[in-house]
Amino acid sequence: MGCAISGLAAKAEFGERNTEDAAAAKHPTEDQIQMIKESWKVIRDDIAKVGIIMFVRLFETHPECKDVFFLFRDVEDLERLRTSRELRAHGLRVMSFIEKSVARLDQLERLDALALELGKSHYHYNAPPKYYSYVGAEFICAVQPILKERWTAEVEEAWKTMFQYVTSLMKQGYQEESIRQRHITLSPKDRPEKKNTAL
C-alpha cells in the first residue's frame, strides 16, 4: 500500500528484537516525548479510523497475522473487515493502549508495567511476539495522512522509538509469562529445587 515502513520494511525499521534487547531499547528523549504528545492531540480525534486502517493494513501486508484473530481468520474481503464491529472494537482497544502509553511516557515505571502486562496477556491470547513490531509500523503509516504537514522525519523517529521501547517490554512480558506457565505445568518432581534458607 504506499507506506515505505509497512510490509517487509517493518522488520528492518522496528527490528526483530529478542528479550535480551529489552534493556537496550531506548526510551524516547524529552524532545521525542513532546513530539509524540503534540502529534497525539491530533491523532486522538480519529482513533477509531486509525485503529481500523491500522489493522486492515496489517492484514493486507501480513496476512499470517489474521491467524491470531479467531474472528478474522477466514475473512478474505477487506471491505468486510473495514466495516467489522469486532475489528473496530479491537482497534479501539489497541488505540487505548497507545493513548495510555503516550500518557505514561513521563512515568517510566507505570509505562513499563503497562507494557509488560500487555505482553503477558498476549501470551494467553496466543499472539506471539514476532507480530508486535508490525502494529507499530502500520500505526505510523495510518497516522501520516492525518498529521499531514505536521509529519516530519523527527516525529516519525519519535514514534518508532516509542514503539520499539514498548514492544521490547511486551516481548519481555510474553517471555516471562511463557516461563511462568511452563513452571506451573511442571510436576513438583520436575521443578527446580528451592533451597531452604531457614535455619
Provide a concise account of the structure shown.
This protein is mostly helical. It has 8 helices and no strands. It starts with 8 loop residues before the first helix and ends in a 14-residue tail after the last helix.
Distance between the termini: 66 Å
CATH class: Mainly Alpha
Oligomer: single chain
In the CATH hierarchy, what is the architecture at level 2? Orthogonal Bundle
Pfam families: Globin (PF00042)
Subunit structure: Monomer. Homodimers and homotetramers. Mainly monomeric but also detected as part of homodimers and homotetramers.
GO molecular function, one term: nitrite reductase activity
Keywords: Heme, Iron, Metal-binding, Oxygen transport, Transport
Descriptive report:
Keywords: Heme, Iron, Metal-binding, Oxygen transport, Transport. The protein has 199 residues and is mainly alpha-helical. It is 63% helix and 0% strand.
Keywords:
heme binding, oxygen binding, 8 helices, mainly alpha, metal-binding, about 0% strand, Globin/Proto, about 200 residues, Globin-like, metal ion binding
List the helices and strands and how they pair.
Layout: H1 9-14, H2 30-43, H3 47-61, H4 78-82, H5 85-103, H6 108-124, H7 132-147, H8 153-185
Helix pairs in contact: 2-8, 3-5, 3-7, 6-8, 7-8
Domain Globin: 27-175
Keywords: Heme, Iron, Metal-binding, Oxygen transport, Transport
Subunit structure: Monomer. Homodimers and homotetramers. Mainly monomeric but also detected as part of homodimers and homotetramers.
